[in-house]
């Protein structure tokens, strides 16, 4: 789907979960809402410190900013084609766009950015193209890990079936995750060889093994337990508040299928390499104008 530059991988949790009783239905409906409220109330001092640093675009409200933004970075090849350039030029431009968005998220206090870099279906593309994307991924990681650790304080994570990735890329992912795991700034999650269906299946398999081993009972299985086994469990805020998809396509393409249940969607005709600060602000303004009800009636 895209090329990128920052890459992460947090494997599914292997720790034994404490059996969890199903919460009342109203809490299930408002799970994500409650998490957001609790995070906002947990530390007044921390929020003041953030406000002292963050400089939002004019008219943007700090309290209405999304904490987790997800992006389907679509349109690299079409961007190149319209300019008479080879596809690789589009991927290179897409990498630059990603770097720019990461910096904007850091500047505006967004806590998690998840990007769909390479889907499990992308392995079906021509070998030459796949090979270039793997090399671009490797090069991007080598060039940015030190920035993550020092200048940007970014925590790097990767989700997806990384078993198919070249060994040098897997080693870089492990290195980047380990070196940045204590960073407290933006968490950048890169989905590589990722499928939303795969994520749900691997979570179910993990839970099934726990039932088989007597760690939990079938009646202990609920939405909370499933979320603990999804790969986005690597994030403090696992479910996106806002999903942005570029290049005019109106679908989620097997990305974060469980996690997008209450996510606000924003679609734009712009190809990913053209998606910069101006359009990001437009997406954030659209988000701030919406009322998120989580299944409840209008207030």
Automatic annotation (TrEMBL):
Enzyme class: transferase
GO biological process terms held by the UniProt record: plastid membrane organization; polyprenol biosynthetic process; response to cold
GO CC entries: chloroplast stroma
Gene Ontology molecular functions: ditrans,polycis-polyprenyl diphosphate synthase [(2E,6E)-farnesyl diphosphate specific] activity; magnesium ion binding
Pfam families the record matches: Prenyltransf
UniProt xrefs under SUPFAM superfamilies: Undecaprenyl diphosphate synthase (SSF64005)
Record flagged with keyword Transferase: yes
InterPro entries named among the record's database cross-references: UPP_synth-like, UPP_synth-like_CS, UPP_synth-like_sf
EC number in record: 2.5.1.-
Cofactor(s) listed: Mg(2+)
Record keywords, A-Z: Transferase
CDD domains: Cis_IPPS
Family from the record: Belongs to the UPP synthase family.
Name the record gives this protein: Alkyl transferase
Species this chain originates from: Rhododendron williamsianum
């Amino acid at each position: 789907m895209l090329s990128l530059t920052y890459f992460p991988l947090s494997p599914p949790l292997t720790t034994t979960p404490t059996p969890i009783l199903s919460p009342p239905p109203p809490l299930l409906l408002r799970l994500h809402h409650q998490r957001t409220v609790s995070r906002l109330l947990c530390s007044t001092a921390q929020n003041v410190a953030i406000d002292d640093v963050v400089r939002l675009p004019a008219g943007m409200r700090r309290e209405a900013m999304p904490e987790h933004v997800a992006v389907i970075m679509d349109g690299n090849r079409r961007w190149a084609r319209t300019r008479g350039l080879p596809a690789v030029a589009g991927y290179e431009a897409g990498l630059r766009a990603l770097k720019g968005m990461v910096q904007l998220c850091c500047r505006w206090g967004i806590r998690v950015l998840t990007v769909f870099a390479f889907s499990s279906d992308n392995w079906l593309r021509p070998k030459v193209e796949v090979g270039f994307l793997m090399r671009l991924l490797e090069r991007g990681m080598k060039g940015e890990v030190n920035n993550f650790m020092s200048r940007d304080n970014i925590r790097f994570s990767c989700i997806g079936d990384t078993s198919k990735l070249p060994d040098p890329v897997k080693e870089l992912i492990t290195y980047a995750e380990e070196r940045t795991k204590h960073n407290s700034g933006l968490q950048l999650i890169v989905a590589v060889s990722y499928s939303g269906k795969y994520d749900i299946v691997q979570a179910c398999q993990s839970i099934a093994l726990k039932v088989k081993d007597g760690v939990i009972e079938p009646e202990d299985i609920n939405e909370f337990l499933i979320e603990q086994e999804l790969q986005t469990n690597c994030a403090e805020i696992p479910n996106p508040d806002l999903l942005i998809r570029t290049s005019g396509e109106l679908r989620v393409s097997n990305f974060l299928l469980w996690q997008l249940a209450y996510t606000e969607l924003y679609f734009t005709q712009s190809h990913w390499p053209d998606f910069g600060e101006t359009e990001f602000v437009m997406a954030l303004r659209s988000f701030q104008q919406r009322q998120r009800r989580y299944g409840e009636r209008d207030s």
